[in-house]
Amino acid sequence: MQVVKDFFENNNIHSKKIAVGVSGGADSLALVLMLKEELKDTQIIALTVDHGLRPTSKDEALYVKKIMDDYEIEHHILSWEGDKPKIGIEEQARIARYNLLTEWCKTNDVNYLCIAHHILDQAETFLMRLERGSGVFGLSSMKEISDRNGIFILRPLLKYNPCYMKDYLKNKNISWVNDESNDCDDFLRVRMRKFLPILDSKTGISAERIYKAVENLQRTRSFLEYSVNLTIENHTVCWNNIAYSFDYSKFLLWHNEVSFHLIGKIIKELSESYYTPESDILLKLLNNMRKKDFESFTLGGCIILKDNLKIWIIKEYRDKSFSYTTTDWNNFI
Asked: Partners of 247 in the beta sheet?
């Protein structure tokens, strides 16, 4: 069975260079070796992020380097420099990891980055977002193919149980690193991971069942994204990546769900953030925008205002004065 090759062929992905995030755990080690084995005409490049959060992190990165050298795979260690946050360390480490990986890819003209997320990761993500009360976009969890910082993120193993990857390595007599943080109950993801077997045994809600639900949600998300993008294309004007505008009368006719995701998408784009604003504050904005006396609102590094029967969403420049008046925007247009 050629799992990785089938993934690339089914998605019509052809590239001379592919990068892979390799931590030293069983999943990522198996993935990089599968890529090397199955994509014989592609240069595989392993990238290991050393967060510097544990005393053993450097040794683990060097262990990965040794295996990559054995299999003649190009390897680079990327270090997270500077002071580390005292709170929210798991999320900040994840953001730092993706930033380091994608920046390396952009600098070295690599368009595709493979990550070894599997079916249990998908189930854990779903449950974590369920706990936060996420909507369709959040509950649809991770895609097999997504974009981050202009790099395509590929998850060829998303449908597979991690036992498959461990068996693959055992057959090659390769050991892997066990991250002790995976057993730390301080992290919600770890608690969800430990809860999954209980959920399955008590209710029959397995990781596979959750995966099927996520697939259905992703189809709904895809339709919403299509509707939002079509509305942006046909009913909004983008002003040099500084602002968007659209008719207030048309906005009042849009479906609430389209308005919700459209406004969030525009704010995310203008503010150059990876995340859309939190749903509660975004809903508050939308409710205010529908009131006759709505004038302005600030959210996510943007100013949203009604001016001359139009809605403007404008990137906020905090380092200089900017007057948002009809005359200014007429001159800008």
From this structure: 310
3-state secondary structure of 311: strand
- Rounded Cα gap, residues 57 and 152, in angstroms: 27
φ/ψ of residue 99, rounded to 5: -60, -45
Angle between helices 279-289 and 256-271 (to 10 degrees): 110
Distance CA 232, CA 246 (A): 9
Residues 6+ apart with CB under 8 A from 24: 48, 60, 61, 63, 64, 176, 177
- From the list 123, 127, 116, 200, the residue with the least C-alpha distance to 164 is 116
Percent over 70 (pLDDT), the chain: 91
Query: Count of H helices and E strands in the chain?
Result: 13, 11
Give the residue from 100, 101, 47, 51 showing the smallest Cα distance to 74: 47
CB count in 10 Å sphere of residue 326: 10
Q: Is 148 helix (H, G, I), strand (E, B) or coil?
A: strand
Give per-residue pLDDT as tens, 91-125: 888 888 999 999 999 999 999 999 999 999 999 99
